[in-house]
Design brief:
Blueprint: H1 3-13, H2 17-41, H3 50-69, H4 73-94, H5 99-139, H6 150-241, H7 248-278, E1 287-290, H8 291-308, E2 312-317, E3 323-326, H9 328-344, E4 350-359, E5 365-372, H10 380-384, H11 395-401, H12 407-417, E6 421-426, E7 432-440
Parallel strand pairs: 2-4
Antiparallel strand pairs: 1-3, 4-5, 5-7, 6-7
Helix pairs in contact: 2-3, 2-4, 2-5, 2-6, 3-4, 4-5, 5-6, 6-7, 7-12, 8-9, 9-12
Length: about 450
């Protein structure tokens, strides 16, 4: 479909109902006016009045064409009705001010103006009718013929009846169209209401299912952590109690057991954190924390992952920055997740962790932690999935690097709970930079 066809279709869809009503009525009215003028001019043929017949034949179609292409078809039709009023008045003036023609056509035109545009528009129509009378009478030298033939009287009555009948029929047809449209809208509303009820039921069921899921995961996480802690504890005891004659292969197997149990425990803890976040049961304890001590504990926690992939960690802290206002436990959890993620997707490289402060014109402050690596990087499509639970960049990364896809999702939620957020910039093959920022309270002025 071309642009012109679309515009024409839109114009037809927005067409004012009065245009459809008045089009056949306008044709009938001007034909009736022609018959009436013909009955008057039969007694005294006019000179050079061919243009009157042209107007009667062309104007109804021209008015319809203009209204269909107008941006506001209602206003266009109101203007067309004023033109009709003027022409009807002119016909009355051309008929030597024949009272039968003026009353019959003028009364019908006034009814049309009143029905289409209300009282104010009807007054404008009467003014246009009077102007038409003056123009038409001026063209005939203000000749007045009180004598009226029986043919003119009869045609006047027929014209008035025809006009009003056509107008009534068109109004009825438009009423039927409106009724059908209203019925279709009501049916559509009923369907929408039924869909809304169904969606509300589905939403309620989903909420209940989510609550049941969260409760189940919370309970199962607790039940699973207890035996896993026992497995890890007994593995450590066995490692300490093994005799010196134990083969390296046996010690390696014991290490694999401990590592697998530790990984599983970390995943269960992540699921438990996620369920608590979903249930809004994570309570923060915001306080001033020792930044350097916190970053040192992060370095210690991620060191095994760094060593396993041949990476090293570099920590840079802005001079003078020693305290951060946050939940120390949750901030440590976020930084460990981000740094571990960087170390996991890189080998034999450097993970840089920078802590800086930034101010705003409003006086607010924020602390930023930038974690930059030179790993595999990510595409914009991959970054769109990054903070969604249980999702990683693609299946190949899950197979190659492992993980449940929960760490970054939990980190973003924790950051937002503390009033901040976490963002990422990355390019494929050029590494990534994760930025964690947290708002800081405005320091009070001395003596305040």
């Amino acid at each position: 479909m071309t642009k012109a066809d679309e515009d024409q279709e839109d114009g037809a869809r927005r067409l004012y109902g009065g245009v459809r009503v008045n089009y056949p009525v306008r044709i009938g009215a001007h034909l009736a006016a022609g018959l009436l003028l013909g009955s008057v001019f039969a007694m005294k043929p006019p000179q050079s009045m061919w243009w009157v017949a042209a107007v009667m034949l062309i104007w109804p179609h021209l008015a319809y064409w203009l209204s269909r292409r107008a941006k506001d078809s209602r206003r266009s039709e109101m203007r067309a009705l004023l033109v009709d009023s003027f022409l009807i008045g002119a016909y009355g003036g051309l008929s030597s001010l024949n009272p039968w023609i003026i009353v019959a056509l003028g009364g019908a035109m006034h009814a049309s103006n009143l029905g289409s545009g209300g009282g104010r528009h009807a007054v404008r129509g009467l003014i246009a009718l009077a102007c038409g009378l003056l123009v038409g009478a001026a063209l005939t030298g203000f000749e007045f013929r009180p004598d009226t033939s029986l043919l003119t009287i009869g045609l006047s009555a027929v014209a008035a009846a025809l006009y009003l009948s056509l107008f009534g029929h068109a109004i009825h047809a438009e009423s039927l169209r409106t009724r059908k449209t209203r019925a279709a809208l009501e049916e559509r509303n009923r369907e929408i209401e039924a869909q809304a009820v169904h969606l509300e039921q589905a939403r309620t069921e989903a909420v209940q299912a989510n609550k049941a899921k969260s409760a189940f995961l919370a309970n199962m996480s607790h039940e699973l952590r207890t035996p896993l802690n026992a497995v890890i504890g007994y593995t450590e005891l066995l490692d300490e109690e093994l005799p010196a004659s134990t083969t390296p292969e046996a010690r390696a197997d014991l290490g694999r057991i401990k590592h697998a149990a530790t990984e599983l425990l970390a995943m269960i803890n992540a699921v438990l954190d996620l369920t608590r976040l979903d249930a809004n049961k994570v309570h923060l304890h915001l306080e001033d924390c020792d930044l350097r001590g916190l970053l040192s504990s992060v370095d210690t926690a991620v060191n095994p992952t760094m060593v396993a992939n041949g990476n090293r960690m570099q920590v840079d802290v802005q001079p003078g920055l020693s305290v951060v206002h946050a939940d120390a436990l949750r901030l440590r959890q976020v930084l460990i997740a981000v740094v571990s993620n960087a170390a996991k997707f890189m080998s034999h490289g450097v993970v840089r962790l920078r802590a800086t402060t930034h101010g705003h014109p409003t006086g607010a402050m924020e602390v930023r932690f930038d974690v930059q690596d030179s790993g595999i990087g990510m595409s914009p499509e991959a970054m769109a999935k990054l903070f969604q639970p249980f999702l990683q960049v693609d299946e190949s990364t899950t197979r190659a690097f492992g993980g449940s896809g929960l760490g970054l999702a939990i980190s973003r939620r924790l950051c937002r709970l503390m009033g901040g957020d976490i963002d990422v910039t990355s390019q494929p093959g050029e590494g990534s930079c994760f930025t964690v920022w947290l708002p800081q309270p405005v320091p009070s002025e001395p003596g305040a």
